[in-house]
Amino acid sequence: MNAPARPLGFVAASPCGGIAAAIGGAAALLRHSGALWLEAERALVVADLHFEKGSAYARRGQMLPPYDTRETLRRLALEIEALSPRLVVLLGDTLHDGGAEARIDAEDAAAVDRLAAGRTLLWIVGNHDADGPRRLAGEVGDEIALNGLLLRHEPQAGLQPGEVAGHLHPCARVRGRGASVRRRCFVTDGERLILPAFGAYAGGLNVRDAAFSGLFARPPTAVALGPRKAHAVAWGALGAD
Which residue has better confidence, 57 or 241? Predict the structure, then answer.
């Protein structure tokens, strides 16, 4: 693909540190937290939280600090506090595996209840949590249409204008001045959007990987997440791992 010298014109910096974008003609804010804000619907969207990934690894003998669910919920609570959404969409793979809900600490389960209070909490099912939660607060669905966009967990093959998905955990390696950095990122061509993983322990797949091939009509822009702001990065500035 021939890369543009600069990010495509459908993105612009926002005063909050995010990137304002038009996705399939719908206004969207790509926040530096990795959350998507759809102001017209007052909807907050996050993908791939992978609750209890740490405890899943511990059961296999790989000991990680068991606080990933709590940290992910803390960050999500900050987004909800900042934006006061009427709808929160968890875009699949919110639970790391079929036993994750049973392993969630009572304090973390109570935090989910608090996040759902006064709003709709929708769990879109993913490949890791195909049945959704059974006792945690919220509703369960396969996908949802919002403001002309179709939100689902896994990107469908080929061009899908208006699709918003997760699943691939996109990351960008940004090159410059003899060095590079790797960051979680949104990736979009202005027609569809793939969200970064929001979970504390979720890994990432480089957007140059073959898994992203054929998903975009033109070279996409990565919106890389920094500690205080997001950065729109043109395809030509992105490198492989």
Answer: 241
